[in-house]
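dumping this here before i forget
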Amino acid sequence: MQVSSLNEVKIYSLSAGRSLPEWLSDRKKRALQKKDVDIRRRIELIQDFEMPTVSTKIKVSRDGQYIMAVGTYKPRVRCFDTYQLSQKFERCLDSEVVTFEILSDDYSKIVFLQCGRFVEFHSQHGHYYRTRIPKFGRDFSYHYPSCDLYFVGASSEVYRLNLEQGRFLNSLQTEASESNVCDINPVHFLFAMGTAEGKVECWDPRTRNRVGLLDCALSSVTADTEIDGLPSISALTFDGALNMAVGTSTGQVLLYDLRSSNPLIVKDHHYGLPIKTIQFQRQLDLIISADSRIIKMWNKDTGKIFTSMEPEHGINDVCLYPNSGMLMTANEAPKMNIYYIPVLGPAPKWCSFLDNLTEELEENPESTVYDDYKFVTRKDLENLGLAHLIGSTLLRAYMHGFFMDIRLYHKAKMMANPFAYEEYRREKIRQKIEETRAQRVQLKKLPKVNKELALKLIEEEGEEQQITRKRKQKNLPSLLKDDRFKIMFENPDFQVDEQSEEFRLLNPLVSKISEKRKRKLKILEELEAKGEEEEEEPEGKASDAESSESSDDEKGWVEEVRKQRKLLRQEEKLKRRERSKEDQQTLLKPQFFEIKEGEEFRSFKDSAKKQKLMKKTLEDRLKLEEKLGTLNVSDTTVGSKQATFKLKKSEQQRKQQEAEKQHRQERKTLRRSANHLKSKRGRGRLFY
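structure:
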């Protein structure tokens, strides 16, 4: 039996420990019990209280003698007799059970709502009748005065099946698209249903008219809750004539008084999981609400947590045994859990021995070995003045220290430090002072690189935090704490150059803002140098100056851009003048180059042309060769390209051709001059 305690409430898990397989013989079971201590100490309250794979629903009959559970696989129902502490019968079903209801005081009349739209009735001997509803059902309730079954599900209608007449009656037409849960008040028989839109509709079965509508989705959203979508109703139950508890799909439980449309209290499970079941414990005015992860017990008047339980496996259903402290759960595991909480009430009659067992455990609590010893290091012993005990029987060496008796430790500590109370008092005073300091503007250390950028980011983070608090959003991660941008504030190569042209044009107001930040940086550096963390009033004055000048900055940003442009032009002119002066001052000296052996000197223009030509692409070079006539590209009949090249002539051939060409031109000029003289002589003869 496993014992846990939360808020000083003892919870005994009666199903903890390993279970023995059914196919083992009695002889082997006895042998295992002798060998294994855990098996010998376990408590099997009800024999074979489990399902083959998963249990989905669990209920107790009104007479308290029978516990019925449904599960898989295969789909089945098991009935356990508490007087015999064993299983009474087991029945297999055709499809999985969504929910079921015990109509009689014992197990003689049971109704099952199954997945395939089937409604199956069982009597004491077994299967009795089976029918079908038009749409898939999710929940149903039984109205005792009229013998009507009300079915809700994936439809806007509520189907009514009268068990006395054996026929379906006119259905109730609702405004909801789908309904998830329903319940009937046991006092005045008001029918209530929870919809997928997060509303609760209340109907009077006598007149078949709607008498009330509650918008629980709107009421479930409070200042502390965070939801991702529209909450739908997942659980609904009545307590007495006036109280009603509603569970949402986002993990909130709302307690209503039927005379008011506003909830009395809203309790959040803080897991964001749908509420599975809600139960009332009237002796202590508690509400037991459960989702798939945790079972919480809390006071219905104040909302204060009484205790909670977190089983190892997911929870499907919770059943509180009437007028007792026993709690049973259906889980996503074969074994169904049984818990006993003595504070809630006594044990049931069929297991009254649990009270005596728990009383004995409380009288003789098991203390662990290390509760009476204190682990101390060698330094702790020197501070207490007990270093001379090393090696004696009063200290037991263990790892990097020693175990010593806790009583000896307390005595030595009182003798070594008689003013422990004064130290405690000083520590408390220091904590109070730190709390008040935390409310002031704290001094923040800035990095060595990009100090102004870091100060800007800190200011923006402060503004974003205020906005997120107002809008109740999650805070974004800080850029200063991000490892990806850490080097930007450590490496000087990433220093922002505020004098560059791009920076000044992109940030027109950077001059005024930078001045303000520089003031802050000077104040922070002075405070760091002096070490006075408390005196931070100058920083506050700077913030006041910022607020007063912010409107002027917003109005004159155009003028600031113009000023920056003028300043940049003036700086460029000054730079040009300085360059021209430097050029005039510098004297140009001739440079000499040495030519390698076996090479001829060529002009610098030819080498520059060759370098430019080598930098060009192949396409540009081919076009240039075509213009010069050394390359001819033509299309063939097949569709391909044909290129013909002319070889470049050597330097000697080129010089020879130039000499021949020059010689031919000289001969032509001589011929022309001779012909011209001849013609002149002939004209002179004719004239004379």
